[in-house]
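Reviewers of the previous submission asked for a worked example of the structure-prediction workflow described in the proposal, so we include one complete record here. The input consisted solely of the amino acid sequence. No template or homolog information was supplied to the procedure at any stage.
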Amino acid sequence: MNLFGIGNMEIAFVLIVAGVVLGPARVVDLARNAGTFYRKARRTIREIADTATVKLDEEPAPQTVRRDPVPGPEGAVSRGSDEGAGKVE
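From that input alone, the workflow returned the following C-alpha cells.
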C-alpha cells in the first residue's frame, strides 16, 4: 500500500514514535478524532457534490416574452420604430 507516497513501513514507524511520545491513551484519542474529522469531511464533500449534480440536472426555467405592463393609448405615435420616418402627409 502506498498512501500519499508513504509506504507501510513509514506509517508503522510514525505510529510507534507517536505511541512512545504521546502514550497509548492519547494515540487512541488522536486516532478517534482523526477518524471523526475524516468522516465529517467526506460527508461534507459528498453533500456539496450531490448539490452541484442536482443543480446541473434541473431543467432550465422557460423564458417568457417580456411585455409592457401598460399598453399604450390608441392612436399614439410609436417611438421605437423607424417606419414612416421622413414621410410627410
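The radius of gyration is 35 Å. We consider this example representative of the routine output the project will generate in years two and three.
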